[in-house]
Amino acid sequence: MNEVLKAENEESALELLHELQCTDGLPVVIPTRERVARMVLASGLDSELVLGELGPAGGVASVEKVATAAVMAGCLPDYMPVVIAAVKAAARPEFDLAELQATTHCTAPLIIVNGPARKTCGPISSSYGALGPGHRANASIGRALRLCMINIGGGRPGISDMALLGHPGKFTYCLSEAEEASPFPPLHTSLGFEASDSVVTLLGCEAPHSVLYADNADDPEDAEKLLYVLSVGLANIATNNAIFCSGVALVVLGPKHANVLSRSSYSREKIALKLWELTHFPTADHDYYGNEFGSRFDGDTYCAFEKPEDILVMVSGGVGLYSMVMPNWGGAGHQNRAVSVKIEENFFCEIPGLSKS
Amino acid sequence: MRDGYCIAKHGLPIVALITDDFWEQGQFMAESIGMPDLPRLQLPHPVAGTGEDRIESIAYSIVDKILDRFSHE
After folding, report:
1. Which listed residue, of A271, A344, B27, B43, carries a Cα 20 to 30 Å from B57's Cα?
2. How many independent structural domains does chain B possess?
């Protein structure tokens, strides 16, 4: 059992949590014993079950502690399987959470949800404004992971989280794939899962960069122009990927742009390959702008990404002229890899009337 | 700090060099990894990119302290 704080009322409790630096700076739902117990109960898991260790503090992420964060973040009990999968992914050694929290780079973990859990544990939006305000599941699931990173992982700005500026996705960063609107098989099937699985893919990445492309179905070079524009946003000389030449970056295609590429017979794999080719840059630029990171490549060009698979491609958002790209940090021992974890919905305990209370 | 920890856990002596702005983070890391007394010395912040002359001057100002810490390990 965790330590229980005492306060006269919820207002005082909120002030106490702010004072103890247990919040993200915004008001939280007070995690009373009853609320946490109900969240644990809904998870169907033992409260003491350890999901992993979160760095840099090395705190033990038990189901109870994660449930506490989920309550504080404003999650419904329905969301717990996704929060639990996200925490498990963050705790995996290849995610390098301690380094990700400690770096001066702005990186934040983006939670990508695929499979039936998008609906059963949500709805988790993949449509208009999926990364913006107004979607409770997106907002609170991402926030729950952040509160775990603060209160279990010990990430506090200027002390253990040394991001020079950070970005707004450090409050919450979660969306699902628009599988029904996508012309491609779901992202998680490209990562080795069955389409019927529900999966969280966690990627530490920068804030989303908007990519404008006014497509034209009569233009025979429509797809190639779009891919070029995407590649410019994905890895230009200002990004870590183009300088460190490591890591994994994400392309979030709007459904309209996805259809432009599909029309020209591009699969997800072919898109990634083409973007990988388009992010080969002059070695002279790396030498000149890379300073201490430069002068390490032979030949006239170098690759911003080690291999095409380091460029993830998914479909999400409303229908229009915009897609988004998220370059990433590319540091630490595992070069800031994406980590996918299956969402275990079988343990979820539905309690009539609880999820909406 | 983590690099220092990785070396220290193999039984080798280390002195971690940490700049002012990261001093508190260094203490945090040292405590979280269970080596609160991991030897460290403070440098001005920033060091990287400040030019060869300044980096050389910082190196000269700290080298005796580094050797001193090693001689007491």
Report:
1. B27
2. 1
